[in-house]
Automatic annotation (TrEMBL):
<feature type="transmembrane region" description="Helical">
    <location>
        <begin position="211"/>
        <end position="228"/>
    </location>
</feature>
<feature type="transmembrane region" description="Helical">
    <location>
        <begin position="357"/>
        <end position="376"/>
    </location>
</feature>
<feature type="transmembrane region" description="Helical">
    <location>
        <begin position="125"/>
        <end position="143"/>
    </location>
</feature>
<dbReference type="InterPro" id="IPR007016">
    <property type="entry name" value="O-antigen_ligase-rel_domated"/>
</dbReference>
<feature type="transmembrane region" description="Helical">
    <location>
        <begin position="235"/>
        <end position="253"/>
    </location>
</feature>
<feature type="transmembrane region" description="Helical">
    <location>
        <begin position="321"/>
        <end position="345"/>
    </location>
</feature>
<keyword id="KW-0472">Membrane</keyword>
<feature type="transmembrane region" description="Helical">
    <location>
        <begin position="94"/>
        <end position="113"/>
    </location>
</feature>
<keyword id="KW-0812">Transmembrane</keyword>
<feature type="transmembrane region" description="Helical">
    <location>
        <begin position="163"/>
        <end position="181"/>
    </location>
</feature>
<feature type="transmembrane region" description="Helical">
    <location>
        <begin position="30"/>
        <end position="51"/>
    </location>
</feature>
<protein>
    <recommendedName>
        <fullName>O-antigen ligase-related domain-containing protein</fullName>
    </recommendedName>
</protein>
<dbReference type="GO" id="GO:0016020">
    <property type="term" value="C:membrane"/>
</dbReference>
<keyword id="KW-1133">Transmembrane helix</keyword>
<feature type="transmembrane region" description="Helical">
    <location>
        <begin position="382"/>
        <end position="399"/>
    </location>
</feature>
<feature type="transmembrane region" description="Helical">
    <location>
        <begin position="188"/>
        <end position="205"/>
    </location>
</feature>
<dbReference type="Pfam" id="PF04932">
    <property type="entry name" value="Wzy_C"/>
</dbReference>
Length: 422
C-alpha cells in the first residue's frame, strides 16, 4: 500500500463510525452484539501495521500519549479480572461480557495504531471530514424531525436519539471553537465554521435529548473556562444560545417532544414535586440508582462484568453511567475507570497551545460534557463515542507537535490550516 494508505484508512474509519453499518451476530444472546463496518476497517489498519513492521523488521513502537495508553490497559486489565469472576458466578452471560471487554481493547488498539501512524495521517483533513459528516447527520436529523410528529424521535445512523445527540455535540463544539478562535484573523472561515456548528446545535435540540443538551451546555462552559482569553466568548456563547433557541422554536411544532425539556417544579407540603412530560426520567434515574446500589452491595469488589448493564438480566438497564460502572466492575473498577477518564481530560487540556487551541479545547469540553450527561446514560463508554474520542485526542496531540516543532524536525506538519489557530 502507498504511503498515503494509513491516511485513507483512517478517513474511512471515521466515516464508518459516523455512518454506522452493523451486521448482527445471531449466535450471541444479545440484541446489541454485532460486527460493524468500523471493525473491518480497523482490522485493515492493524493488518497494514503488521505487514509494514514485518517488511521493515522493526517492532519498536513510539507512543506520544503513554499515560492514557497505560490507563487504557490498567482499566482493561481489571475488566478481565471482573470477567473471570463473572464467569464463575454467571457462566450463562460470560460470552456477552467477554465481547464487551474485547470492545474496550479494540478501542485501545485503535488508540495505539493512531499514535503509530500519527505522522502519516493528515489530522486536519480527518477533523474536517468528521465535522462535515457531523453536519450531514445534523441536517438529516432536522429534516426527519420536521417530518415526524408526537413523541417520535429520530436516530438517523446512531440507533438511539440520545447517542445521536451527544455525538452531534462534538462537531458542534469543534466548529464553534474553531470559529471563535478565527473570527478576527479569518472572519469568513469563522462564519462557515459557526454555521456548521449551528446546524449541529439545532439538530441536538431537535432530537429531544436532555443528555445531548447537557453535553452541549457543559461543553460550552468548559470551553469558555479553558480559553476565554483566546476565543471570542461572545461568538461562542451567542452561537450556542442561538442554536438552542432555534431548536426550541423548531420544536414548538412538536409540543410533546418540547415538553421533555420543560419539567414543572412545585413545592407541596414542604417537599419538591416534579410534574410534566419531562419528569419521568428524573424519578426513574432515582429508582435506578437505588437499585444499582443494592446490586453493588451483592458484588462490591469484582462486580457483574463489563456491560452487565444492560446485558445481564439480573442487572438489566441502570441508565446512569456512574452506577453502571460501579455495578459492572465493583469499587476497584469504578476507581480505575474514573481515573482513566480524568487522565483523558488532562491529556486534552495539556495539548492546548497558541498554535493548536480549538481541537484540544473542544475535545476536553466534549469529554466533560459526556461525563456530565452520564447522570442520564452510559454515553462515555459507548464504543463508537470512544473511537471518536481517542482519534480527536491523537489529532490534538499531533497538531500541537506540528505547530511547535522546529523546522527540520522529523515528522511533517499536517497540510492545511483548518483546525490550527496560528
Amino acid at each position: 500500500m502507498t504511503a498515503r494508505g494509513p491516511h485513507a484508512l483512517f478517513l474511512l474509519f471515521v466515516l464508518s463510525v459516523v455512518f454506522s453499518v452493523q451486521f448482527p451476530l445471531p449466535l450471541v444472546a444479545s440484541q446489541y452484539a454485532s460486527v460493524n463496518l468500523s471493525d473491518l476497517v480497523l482490522l485493515a489498519i492493524a493488518v497494514l501495521f503488521v505487514l509494514e513492521r514485518l517488511r521493515a523488521d522493526d517492532w519498536r513502537l513510539s507512543l506520544s500519549l503513554p499515560s492514557p495508553t497505560a490507563w487504557f490497559l490498567v482499566a482493561g486489565g481489571w475488566m478481565v479480572v471482573s470477567l473471570a469472576a463473572a464467569v464463575v458466578r454467571s457462566p450463562d452471560v460470560a460470552a456477552v461480557n467477554a465481547l464487551w471487554t474485547l470492545k474496550w481493547f479494540e478501542v485501545t488498539v485503535l488508540f495505539v495504531l493512531a499514535q503509530a501512524f500519527a505522522d502519516r495521517v493528515d489530522w486536519n483533513a480527518l477533523l474536517v471530514v468528521l465535522s462535515g459528516a457531523g453536519v450531514v447527520v445534523a441536517v438529516t436529523t432536522v429534516v426527519r424531525t420536521v417530518s415526524t410528529s408526537g413523541f417520535t424521535r429520530v436516530t438517523v445512523f446512531w440507533h438511539n436519539p440520545n447517542t445521536l445527540a451527544v455525538f452531534l455535540a462534538l462537531p458542534a463544539l469543534l466548529c464553534l471553537a474553531h470559529g471563535a478562535g478565527r473570527i478576527r484573523e479569518r472572519p469568513l472561515e469563522a462564519l462557515v465554521a459557526a454555521l456548521g456548528g449551528l446546524c449541529c446545535l439545532l439538530a441536538v435540540v431537535s432530537t429531544g435529548s436532555r443528555s445531548g443538551l447537557i453535553t452541549l451546555v457543559a461543553g460550552v462552559a468548559v470551553t469558555v473556562v479553558l480559553s476565554y482569553r483566546r476565543l471570542s466568548v461572545s461568538l461562542l456563547v451567542g452561537g450556542v444560545g442561538t442554536g438552542i433557541a432555534a431548536g426550541g422554536v423548531l420544536l414548538t411544532t412538536r409540543p410533546k417532544l418540547l415538553g421533555r425539556f420543560l419539567p414543572t417544579i412545585a413545592f407541596r407540603d414542604g417537599t419538591i414535586v416534579f410534574s410534566g412530560p419531562g419528569t419521568g426520567a428524573i424519578y426513574s434515574r432515582y429508582e435506578l440508582t437505588r437499585k444499582a446500589l443494592g446490586l453493588w452491595t451483592d458484588r462490591p469488589v469484582f462486580g457483574y462484568g463489563w456491560f452487565a448493564s444492560p446485558e445481564n438480566p439480573t442487572v438489566s438497564f441502570l441508565d446512569v453511567f456512574y452506577t453502571q460502572v460501579l455495578v459492572d466492575l465493583g469499587l476497584v473498577g469504578f476507581v480505575l475507570v474514573g481515573a482513566f477518564y480524568l487522565v483523558l481530560v488532562r491529556a486534552f487540556v495539556v495539548q492546548r497551545t497558541t498554535t493548536s487551541l480549538a481541537v484540544p479545547t473542544a475535545g476536553a469540553a466534549w469529554l466533560v460534557g459526556l461525563l456530565a450527561a452520564g447522570i442520564g446514560g452510559g454515553h462515555p463508554r459507548i464504543p463508537r463515542i470512544m473511537f471518536l474520542l481517542v482519534l480527536v485526542l491523537v489529532a490534538a496531540n499531533r497538531l500541537r507537535i506540528c505547530g511547535t516543532a522546529p523546522s527540520g524536525r522529523p515528522g511533517r506538519p499536517s497540510r492545511g490550516r483548518s483546525f490550527r489557530n496560528d
